[in-house]
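Dock C6P; give full complex structure.
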Amino acid sequence: MASLVQPVHETETSSEMAQPQTLDGARVRTDFPILIHPAEPGRQSLIFLDSAASSQKPNVVIDALTAYYRDYNANIHRGVYHLSEVATTAFEDARKKIARFINAASPRECIFVRNTTEALNLVAQSWGRANLQPGDLVVFTEMEHHSNIVPWQMIAEERGARLAHVPITADGRLNLDRFDEILEEGPKLVAFTHVSNGLGTVNPAKEMIAKAHAAGAVVVLDGAQSTPHFAVDVQDLDCDFLSMSGHKMLGPMGAGVLYGKKSLLDAMPPYMGGGSMIRKVELGHTTWADVPAKFEAGTPSVGDSIGLGVAIDYLNELGMDRVWQHEQELGAYALDRMRELPGIVIYGPESAELRSGVVSFTLGDIHPHDVAAILDEQNIAVRAGHHCAQPLMRALGIVATTRASFYVYNTPEDVDRLVEGLYGVYRTMTGQPSPTMSSARVVPVSEKSDGDHAPCRAKWDAWNHTDEKQ
Ligand code: C6P
């Protein structure tokens, strides 16, 4: 039975040593069944450019999930029977893989959660409730995802703490002069994203963490958009907490990680009460288990966590340096090609070196939802909206962008298809055969008489009127 469990791979495998210098996106793609399905009749092949929202999954991850449910599905940390022991070992092996992946000092510093949102809420509700006093200052930035804003607002309101934010510069970087000024006020906690999901900006995390520590703050790093794409070393960065979303890094939905320094985690109260997180329960009083169990109440997503471990094996075999180089090359190529498009505004830093493989843009006065809907007709999947970063959009003076995001399975040909697709958007929206953006008003597709795009637009509009537009 135990042989059915994916082995724990070491980071430096001999196969990695033999890998070529660069990553071949077309080869990698063959490991992803969803990307190589024959196109449906009448549709072009899928170009998936929305990995910043959630990545696709390779066969090894899908197979690991199937194997768990087919061969050794059991609850963990409870059963004395063989099946449960096999599942427990596989689950804890996944934790060890994650700890090695981010260079945590111990697997105990890695807590399984569902996603980044849960990781950040855990810190806010546990560390925040125990440590924030009335008048304390909590700092985040204008480019944060809502997950790294709202939990701080909630706990600050409850504890009477104050909030401050670091603004962005005109080219979509953090205003580090303003950051330094805010640090002079001695914040208790600083939370910021390693990489912006709305802009692709890579923030100078190590430098910012050192400054925040010098000012006496605890630092929470949102790693949702960094850990899938380049090597993140928590000891080198010296962050106090780091959040990860496994579903953005080839893993299943439902497995994420909160890394925390053990000394901090040990001192924090539990976030949720229930099974697994206790040492002793009496009718009037309970004592807590050690970390990580203290923060893992209830039955975890066992199969998903094991699947995340397998995703990490896969990324290690590709090599995180190659993954990052591949994405930067694709990003640079996309910037070059897309800049030729008339009327395009690309948000974020000019220099490809300061960016991840995310290109967020607007196309003249065409609504980003229209751009995405028309690209979808060409089977090109991109995201449009505020990307759960409304304050960022406000700072940019817009309500939404269209966003293409690249990952290991994308190729320069995908960029070419995107650019062709965007010329198609011009044609659809302006009715002009040539792709020049004149000063003439672009007609929203929903107003066009052919009505072809009306269903897409109606879908967007309906969704747009819900409370939480993504
Ligand atoms: N961004 C995007 O399309 P969850 O949903 O909990 O896995 O991740 C939240 C989150 C937090 N921080 C950053 C920087 C993120 O990018 C995300 C998720 C997705 O951009 C979905 S909104």
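Observed: The first helix runs from residue 14 to 17.
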